[in-house]
Amino acid sequence: MVSKNQKNNKSQKNNEEKKALEPKIVRFKSNRERVKTLLSQFKKDDRVLILIWADPDSMASALAMKRLIRQRVSEVTIAHVNEIRRVNNLAMVKLLKIPLVKWRQVKVSEYTKKILIDSQPSHNAEFQKLDFDVVIDHHPLTNGWNAPFIDIRPEYGATSSMMTEYLRTLKIKPSVVLATALIYGIKTDTNNFEKECTLQDVLCFQYLFKRMNRHLLHKIEASDIRRSELKYFRKAFEEVKIRKQRLFSHVGKVPNPDILVVIADFFNHVHEIGWVFISGEYRERLIVIIRCDGYRKDAGKLAQRVFGNLGFAGGHREKARAEVPLEKLNQNANQFTTRSLIRILEKHFRR
Ligand SMILES: [Mn+2]
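^ Those are the sequences you sent over. The predicted structure of the assembly is below.
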């Protein structure tokens, strides 16, 4: 019998051993060699577990991995460690029928091989407990782990692009569902190619574009509001106050700050409105979403100036966000109103 203490000692020792590990990176001469080495990790009777932190890129990449190996092994299961909350991601799972199981429901001992995709073992406490056979990712290389097969390419905008290359190398034509998933993965992780990415990401996008279904993609991208969240739109409309081409609305308590972003983006469509400020309360914090046209305006700088010393504030020229603990504003949650929002911001526009 192993006592709890012994067990703790053992896991502590394991953790220390893992910390000292450094992933051994093999440089492949070609895509062909890389794919061959990947496939050589698997045997016909292997039961394979693919583990992900579910987001569009990881889900698409896991689907592609399943497609690559499903006929070469006896079983492939995709498990996710996080709760999927974003409505777009829920829509992706539902519309593309992505076969996912929750990590809690997985018996790891039933699997002979484990794959980690779009993450590295050091990224998450659950991942850290496991020894992976394959790790494929596009984040910067981290220490504290190793695996028989490693493919880390930080210059890539998305793991979906890397997986598209694997498919192409094996001349596997992706199905409509898989192509649509991979396109959405690339679009999300590169922020529609606004973030840093490589020519490879663009080429993969072009290759997948002919094979995807744009109606499916559009429905996934457009689904960003829950039915239960429509009432916050009504509140936002009731609260709208416009001062000199600046639109303000305090929505009050929200179950998820994402809805404030959707509302702010909506009001940013209004002609002749230069600035949009939408605020709400989430977990004892005031969340302020800022939108403007970015022309001779800088939302990020304004957020910094107004909220920088109170909490988190930042963003780009046309989009910004601030999160401030309500106590720092000397306000009770129910005392904060659209007028308070106007008062905080207007003095920064006066010269
Ligand atoms: Mn990714």
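The chain has 13 helices and twelve strands. The mean pLDDT is 92.

Shout if you want it in another format.
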